[in-house]
Amino acid sequence: MVARENILPISEHLMSVPFSANHCILEGFDQPKVDSTSPVFAEVTKFLVDNLESEVNVIVKQRLDGGVKMIRLPDLEDKIEEVKKRAEARAGANNEKEARMKALRKEMDAMEAKMAALKSA
Q: Where are the domains of the chain?
């Protein structure tokens, strides 16, 4: 039985394709260090949803945490890595931009403090 709060909306495309709904984890995304809120995770997830019709290899039939299956998508492995690398590069560039913006804001605050001090003198 699935709790009401665990039932998620599904796209029309998925509803038109018969499939078995098993809890699966893509190999490499089973580590605790994977941040499901990261842009990399989001981009890889979107890529996987867009490419649902792929061969799936079940690596581990069942894990101790309630029947989760570990899977590998042989047709998409190279493409997944490519998407991950692009997303990581974008995330890195965004982090650099944010760091630079933070430094510029700090410089502006210092300049505004100096200008305020000069005006009050």
A: 13-120
